[in-house]
Amino acid sequence: MLAERRHQLILRALRSGGPAAVTDLSEQLGVSPATIRRDLVKLEEDGLLTRVHGGAVVEEGDQPFAEVAEMRVAEKDAIAERAAAMVKDGQSVLLDIGTTAYRLARQLHGRRLTVITSNLVVYEELADDEGIELVLLGGMVRREYRSLVGFLTEDNLRQLHADWLFLGTSGVRPGGQVMDTTVVEVPVKRAMIKAGEKVVLLADAAKFPGHGMAKVCGPEDLDVVVTNEPVDTVTRTSLQEAGVEVVVAGKVQE
């Protein structure tokens, strides 16, 4: 069994059944305990689970923004730098929630742009930059994840149009579907997609295949995917068949 498939099955088992021992996972997947331990180390490094004595657990709900912000910073910065280079002065940019969008906001200082966001950390980052026209969407505050959601946010988005949308994700399925872990964020993301002229998905390598139970959109809704490592063949083919350009930290993936 391929490692990618094992990882999917491990996460599925932990989400459906709660904490599990290495021995139990080994029996379920038909592989050695040593293989399971290596898989758990990798999944923990990617921020997808927490190892505990003798096994692992997937925490319920979203991790707080502050915790996620410390994960894979170099990878997110590489993606953010490439994404920022797409934007020309004078254009409008819609930034999604999440930590990669925040890293992108840091790359926009000193530019002459309009930035629209429901991401409170993006707002705080750019609030004192006088060259940037800053639009903060209304809505209910999700304090732990520093975002605004709900029908007010969606109504605001219906009145706006941006040259670029930079979208975050919990994971991308092999078929190119963009997923999210939190149902309440999905309507806002969909409203952002409708408001964006060009839709760019920001997804580091840990998001392939990633996780998430709620579908945000299909590959046909994307124009570009920016990542930091080559995308697996199956997912890349699905994206390219839908006309999506795949950009890997400064180069277009063949």
From TrEMBL:
Official protein name in the record: ArsR family transcriptional regulator
What's the domain of life for this entry? Bacteria
Query: Which SMART domains does the record associate with it?
Result: DeoRC (SM01134), HTH_DEOR (SM00420), HTH_GNTR (SM00345)
Question: What sequence ranges are listed for the domain HTH deoR-type?
Answer: 3-58
Output the PROSITE patterns linked to this UniProt entry: HTH_DEOR_1, HTH_DEOR_2
Which CDD domains would you find in this protein's record?
Answer: HTH_ARSR
Q: Which GO terms describe its molecular function?
A: DNA binding; DNA-binding transcription factor activity
The leader peptide range reads: none
UniProtKB keywords: DNA-binding, Transcription, Transcription regulation
The record, for InterPro entries, names: ArsR-like_HTH, Carb_Metab_HTH_regulators, DeoR-like_C, DeoR_HTH, NagB/RpiA_transferase-like, Tscrpt_reg_HTH_DeoR_CS, Tscrpt_reg_HTH_GntR, WH-like_DNA-bd_sf
